[in-house]
DNA sequence: TATCAATACGGAAACGTTTGCGTTAAAAAT
DNA sequence: ATTTTTAACGCAAACGTTTCCGTATTGATA
């Protein structure tokens, strides 16, 4: 087991000082041609690679970004991570992930863990429990320690930072208007409780679309599900809720669902109840998942472009990290600084498949 | 922006030395009761947290494990990561992920990047390109640098390390035997090229099951797909290949597929061709994904238990990391050491759903 | 009263880098 | 021949910790 080679070892072997080795490897003109070549050759021979940890300590930056998400076994989040990873790698950064598992305390713990030097900045999506408690102190404390944050998807006004969101509102409007245009008169909505901002926004989009299309929004057509109880596990509960929605609205001819599971389950229930899709009933889901593509009929969706979200978030964060560098020497007016937080909106796109006409 | 507080600052404020502060915070009896309390109180007041990077440099361990996988937008891999993350967090470790994107060079780059001090050990699954090239030098070099590796799922004999695999062979035997027991006489196999070890093992399991059941293995019933061309994108190619399989085997009454996509696509094609599932044709897939649960009919699967794999891998790695600690003082016989590499097998389980009788 | 042990703390090295500054010797300029 | 410049390198500090070792003060023992 050959241990990692350090500057000191090279210096000792070649009978020069550590600083000479360091400079030689940086190809500094301060070191004589001969010594420089000799050191470089020897270093290459030993396969020397500088120790990242020592560099981090010295430079006070880790070239690592922390990603904090509620759940990783979830198509949307994993596409976001992929996006983050791609640009992070391109720009020389590593990615360290933490899962909050939708829990407030795990979110806080994970942040504290990583904030103590392990990472230069965060990209995160807020856990449901945190949204419910509306306790955002850990975000603000992190920021005030000089660690920038970029939030995506589940964001919140109370925290001042860059944000990347999808146009939940507009996307939903588009989707519901499409259903209207396709002839739907009684469009059901399957959504989550309002404390999840994306659920709320999508619900508002649904209402706005109906309003603009001058279609009466029947309260009975709206099904609000509490996502807290793990519906993934209790599919039957979900199914019976949806079945109830159909039964109390016999004339229903369109469904807009705010996520993939709701949408495909709606199709499943509808088929069981004898609806023909898309002839009797058209369905659109807000998602980007794999279920919709392989469902039968395949599901028309409002695509969220998770990977783009991740890429944009990573670019925003790294831009800010590297901007902070420059700012330290160019002594910039304290006021003109931190103000410029962007909220970047990733456009949604309707991908038409078999569940709509 | 209040910067991070260090021992030095506390020391200066309280007019003691850095070493005293350090000891006081460790609650060392060497420091007088009074000073100790005073320092601890002040540190708590300032919300002092030790700098991880400095600790890493000093202790020569990062408490971070590197996870290298081919792809993250993949249900199996994300469940494995979840498993890793759970036990890593429990045991005080962080997880840093790298994606090889099935590419050899990205795998090598990522390893080198992380091996220079960023992590204490690796958990990884080999990329397809690496398996094809059969070039494993980067793994062996990493190990010989004293950085332990745990491989999961896609493993290889040429590298000596702990491994966590699923019993691909036995699982496949079980699945195919189940089809036989259910009355299938002509069981198709949809699999990948042999260089992916899991594909090969599952193919062997299929053959063995037929052999033991004294069913003739018709070569025509085996469809080997080259996974290199991104089939996810070209669903139509996949579909036509499968359709061809059905058409040249009109008497086919069972299908065993080595992954989820193949299985659900087979069902889709079969339905299109007029097969009733499970009456005319029974299907079993080797997977753990979300498609199978929501397909219609829902798919009977051989479950891989990705999360368990991740948990076991993390435990193995951390065990070895912390074992290495002790070994350094107890000067153990060089020979008796590294030998004890485990290959841990996670049992598969057949989850019966609607695609089988 | 002189010696000793214990108590309570400070100094400094070490982990592996980078970098400002100082030093030496030779070459160039006066 | 003396001074100045320049090339080529070494020393040491710094990043934030921990820990070994040293030391001053106190109280107890001989």
Automatic annotation (TrEMBL), chains A, B:
<dbReference type="GO" id="GO:0003700">
    <property type="term" value="F:DNA-binding transcription factor activity"/>
</dbReference>
<feature type="domain" description="HTH lacI-type">
    <location>
        <begin position="5"/>
        <end position="59"/>
    </location>
</feature>
<dbReference type="InterPro" id="IPR000843">
    <property type="entry name" value="HTH_LacI"/>
</dbReference>
<protein>
    <submittedName>
        <fullName>LacI family DNA-binding transcriptional regulator</fullName>
    </submittedName>
</protein>
<dbReference type="GO" id="GO:0000976">
    <property type="term" value="F:transcription cis-regulatory region binding"/>
</dbReference>
<keyword id="KW-0804">Transcription</keyword>
<dbReference type="Pfam" id="PF00356">
    <property type="entry name" value="LacI"/>
</dbReference>
<dbReference type="Pfam" id="PF13377">
    <property type="entry name" value="Peripla_BP_3"/>
</dbReference>
<dbReference type="InterPro" id="IPR046335">
    <property type="entry name" value="LacI/GalR-like_sensor"/>
</dbReference>
<keyword id="KW-0238">DNA-binding</keyword>
<keyword id="KW-0805">Transcription regulation</keyword>
<dbReference type="InterPro" id="IPR010982">
    <property type="entry name" value="Lambda_DNA-bd_dom_sf"/>
</dbReference>
<dbReference type="InterPro" id="IPR028082">
    <property type="entry name" value="Peripla_BP_I"/>
</dbReference>
């Amino acid at each position: 087991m050959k241990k990692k080679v350090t500057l000191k070892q090279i210096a000792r072997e070649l009978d020069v000082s550590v600083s000479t080795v360091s400079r030689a490897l940086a190809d500094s003109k301060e070191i004589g041609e001969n010594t420089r070549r000799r050191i470089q050759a020897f270093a290459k021979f030993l396969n020397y690679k500088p120790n990242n940890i020592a560099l981090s300590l010295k430079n006070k930056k880790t070239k690592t970004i922390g990603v904090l998400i509620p759940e990783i076994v979830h198509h949307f989040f994993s596409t976001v991570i992929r996006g983050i990873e791609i640009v992070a790698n391109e720009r020389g950064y590593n990615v360290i992930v933490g899962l909050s598992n939708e829990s407030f305390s795990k979110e806080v713990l994970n942040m504290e863990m990583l904030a103590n030097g392990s990472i230069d900045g965060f990209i995160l999506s807020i856990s449901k429990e945190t949204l419910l408690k509306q306790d955002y102190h850990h975000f603000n404390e992190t920021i005030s320690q000089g660690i920038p944050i970029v939030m995506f998807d589940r964001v919140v006004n109370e925290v001042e930072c860059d944000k990347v969101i999808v146009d939940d509102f507009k996307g939903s409007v588009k989707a519901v208007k499409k259903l209207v245009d396709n002839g739907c008169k009684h469009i059901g909505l399957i959504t989550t409780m309002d404390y999840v901002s994306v659920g709320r926004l999508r619900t508002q989009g649904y209402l706005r679309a109906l309003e603009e299309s001058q279609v009466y929004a029947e309260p009975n057509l709206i099904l609000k599900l509490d996502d807290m109880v793990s519906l993934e596990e209790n599919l039957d509960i979900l199914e019976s809720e949806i079945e109830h929605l159909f039964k109390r609205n016999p004339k229903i001819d369109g469904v807009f669902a705010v996520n993939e599971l709701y949408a495909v389950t709606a199709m499943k229930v509808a088929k069981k109840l004898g609806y023909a899709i898309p002839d009797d009933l058209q369905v659109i889901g807000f998602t980007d998942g794999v279920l919709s593509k392989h469902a039968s009929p395949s599901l028309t969706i409002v695509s969220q472009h998770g990977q783009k979200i991740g890429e944009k978030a990573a670019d925003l964060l790294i831009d800010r990290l590297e901007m902070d560098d420059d700012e330290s020497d160019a002594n910039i007016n304290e006021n003109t600084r931190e103000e410029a937080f962007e909220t970047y909106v990733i456009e949604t796109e309707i991908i038409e498949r078999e569940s709509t006409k």
